[in-house]
Amino acid sequence: MRSLSYHIINRAVVILIAVITITLFDKFRLKSKPLSHIISYAISMIAVFTYVWFTSFLDPLGPGAYQGIFVIYTLLTILLSVIIEIKERIKRKRQSVTN
């Protein structure tokens, strides 16, 4: 039972890092929006890899652990960036119609 709850806590921490990434997307602004998303992604990916590395001392990782977290996290970040961009375009379009 300990390993199941440990696994759930680890997933929750990774999700917390993802939520912080969403906040970074909103708060971290450079002149180039893609650059600010890439920097936010890089910071969060470093945090995720560091967390996974630290947890590997307590519980052995599977052979594809880093590859799996990289692929899933990257795809979700790309999806999130696209959703945010679509949302902002719709918002700008509505504002231009009302003006």
**How many domains, as an integer?**
1
Q: Span between N and C termini?
A: 59 Å
Mean pLDDT value: 83
State the order of secondary-structure elements, H for helix, E for strand.
Answer: HHH
Overall body shape: elongated
In percent, how much strand structure appears in the residues? under 5%
Low-confidence stretches: none
Q: What is the CA-atom radius of gyration, in angstroms?
A: 17 Å
Number of strands: 0
Report the biggest beta sheet as strand number plus sense, adding barrel if it closes.
none
Residues in helix, %: over 70%
Number of helices: 3
Q: Which class best fits the helix and strand makeup? A: mainly alpha
What would your notes on this structure say?
This protein is mainly alpha-helical. It has one domain. The chain is 84% helix and 0% strand. It has three helices and no strands. The protein has helices at residues 2-27, 33-55, 65-98. The longest helix has 34 residues, at 65-98. The protein is elongated. The N and C termini lie far apart (59 Å). The model has no long low-confidence stretch (mean pLDDT 83).
Describe the secondary-structure layout:
Blueprint: H1 2-27, H2 33-55, H3 65-98
